Amino acid sequence: MPLKFLQKSSSLLQNFNNKCRFKHNWIQPEGYDTGIKVYNCVTKSKVPLILKNKSFTKWYTCGPTVYDTSHIGHACCYTKLDIIQGILKKQFNVNLVTVMNITDIDDKIINKSIETNKSPKEIAKYYERDFWDDLNLLGISQPDIVLRVSDNINLIVNFIEQLMESKFAYQSEDSVYFDVSKYENYGKLQSIGEGTNTKIPNKRNTADFALWKGSKPNEPYWESPWGPGRPGWHIECSALASSTFGSEIDIHAGGMDLRFPHHENEETQSCAFHNNSQWVNYWMHTGHLHLKNAEKMSKSLKNTISIKDLLKTVDRDDFRMACTMSHYKSAMEYSEEFMQTAKNVLNLYKKFIVNCSEYNKGILKGELNSDILSSLVHNTAEDINKSLCNDFDTPGVINTLNHVVSTVNAMLHSTPAREGRNTEVAHLTALSNLVKKTLNSFNINLKESNNVIDNSFIDIMDVFNNFRQDVRNYGIVNKNKDILKFCDLARNQLNNYGVVVNDHGNMSSWSKM
């Protein structure tokens, strides 16, 4: 049965152009308090992240319009959202159900089909496959549920019909528009300019947005009560997300550029459809990616770098580390220098894990302070949790890990005052595990980064490492600089192939990056 909506009073309609006409309120949901504070674009402050259902959390992400190759701006957005999802799942044990739409019919797809002399369907299928390939290369988990617009036209038409019946939408010629003057809370997510009663062709108000677009010659179309046509962009996400999650969504995510008008219009028409005052409890927006000394990256500015081109020179885990070092809401600058910094930080953590392992094996013999290590184990876990509860402050976590690594490395490479290892080994292992667990929650798996290698390679490297160690010790004893120079050269050449050789006094070890 169609929903019945409350009629808006005529006084509210008359005051639509009053800049102070309504106070936009965010309604704190009832449910499970995660202990996390997140930024809220309605209140412009951090608010408690409260999930409606502890055992089932609804997450919707705006997917791509598949008309071209994805660029590193998309990589940044989806990687940052993947990091947050990993944190919720692995650090806070949240059972996320994730949904994403695929816009496979749009003006841009039609224009591309004309340029290439291929059908819109061919264009959409090709670039959707390319999108999933890119996400896989970046190590980004695919959503649990994927909904394509072209597969759900009837659902979208039914959604529009309900808005028409409740008088929130009107037909103008062969198109249908949402009437923003009928919805009192428009501009909830982002303050907008007024003057919406200005008359322009086919629209009652300038802010009205298309729900259904009448077809043009030689364009794909579907039949509807308003004639042949296709959906508007904003209605797609509302109808598809509502079909899966209903009248309330925990988290809705996308890039900062989608907050207005896309997310604003989604929230508006969905609240009108469901007859409620809040459809999404938490909007999550990622910052733009900028090229160094340039504007934001976008296809319209023709300053993009494809994801596949990115990964020719940058390892996916290094890029993910760069995204972790930048807060999800903040703009991120892409440059060779920043990518190298991220790579260095990740290599620092890899080396730390190796150093801890080598201490446990007796290769490293530094003097460890059990009191400092014990304090680090306790405080580090607490500081990481505080940062993650503070609007997913991953840069704060990186600062905490850097402090751990620098403090412990100083001890590992110190001169031991005594022989033997006691409880320090347990504390050291606990810290090593904590670093690995934290990075794993960001979907940076150090075990995978070290690459699994076959036994024959290990045997060969062990033979070479032992030989080099003996030659190097001979050079040290006999003070032969030429021999030591050749040993250093061999070490540096192996590093070019991802093999790291470490010298610890008269002993040497190796690991695979």
Automatic annotation (TrEMBL):
Domain (tRNA synthetases class I catalytic) ranges: 57-343
UniProt cofactor(s): Zn(2+)
Pfam families hit by this protein: tRNA-synt_1e
GO biological process assignments: cysteinyl-tRNA aminoacylation
Key words, A-Z: Aminoacyl-tRNA synthetase, ATP-binding, Ligase, Metal-binding, Nucleotide-binding, Protein biosynthesis, Zinc
Catalytic class of the enzyme: ligase
Molecular function per GO: ATP binding; cysteine-tRNA ligase activity; metal ion binding
EC annotation from Swiss-Prot or TrEMBL: 6.1.1.16
PANTHER family registered for this protein in UniProt: CYSTEINE--TRNA LIGASE, MITOCHONDRIAL-RELATED, CYSTEINYL-TRNA SYNTHETASE
Protein name (database record): cysteine--tRNA ligase
Source species of the chain: Brassicogethes aeneus
